[in-house]
UniProtKB/TrEMBL annotation:
<protein>
    <recommendedName>
        <fullName>Peptidyl-tRNA hydrolase</fullName>
        <ecNumber>3.1.1.29</ecNumber>
    </recommendedName>
</protein>
<comment type="function">
    <text>The natural substrate for this enzyme may be peptidyl-tRNAs which drop off the ribosome during protein synthesis.</text>
</comment>
<dbReference type="GO" id="GO:0005829">
    <property type="term" value="C:cytosol"/>
</dbReference>
<keyword id="KW-0378">Hydrolase</keyword>
<dbReference type="GO" id="GO:0004045">
    <property type="term" value="F:peptidyl-tRNA hydrolase activity"/>
</dbReference>
<comment type="similarity">
    <text>Belongs to the PTH2 family.</text>
</comment>
<dbReference type="Pfam" id="PF01981">
    <property type="entry name" value="PTH2"/>
</dbReference>
<dbReference type="InterPro" id="IPR023476">
    <property type="entry name" value="Pep_tRNA_hydro_II_dom_sf"/>
</dbReference>
<dbReference type="InterPro" id="IPR002833">
    <property type="entry name" value="PTH2"/>
</dbReference>
Length: 120
């Protein structure tokens, strides 16, 4: 029997809980955040995260400002970050900031800046 992986790498995907969106819309915004942050990561981080099984944690917070503040903190710590703004074609107005993708990055680094957020 194989030991479970340790997951030293992960992505944190954060959705705004103060923007009214259907479950499907939230999922789409989180997916955009995951891809956007991944594209900003370095090759070594991408490979390590992919090799481990691509761990992702989905979190929530309230407010556009809080999302941008977290992005600034992440980038100051060398964590790839991507803010998502909706195109406004379906449920919410164009330009609405909906989500933030962080990582892939070392789990311990992400935990330092996201440990106070609640799971989605």
């Amino acid at each position: 029997m194989r030991a479970p992986p340790e997951f030293t790498w992960k992505q944190c995907l954060i959705i705004r809980d103060d923007v009214k969106m259907s479950c499907g819309k939230k999922c789409a915004q989180i997916a955009h955040a995951a891809v956007g942050a991944y594209e900003k990561a370095g090759a070594a981080a991408k490979r390590s995260w992919l090799d481990e099984g691509q761990k992702k944690v989905t979190l929530k917070l309230t407010g556009e400002r809080a999302l941008f503040e977290l992005k600034v903190i992440a980038e100051a710590n060398g964590i790839p970050a991507c803010i998502i703004q909706d195109a406004g074609l379906t449920e919410i107005p164009p330009g609405t900031v909906t989500a933030l993708g962080l990582g892939p990055a070392k789990s311990e680094l992400l935990d330092r800046i996201t440990s106070d957020l609640k799971l989605l």
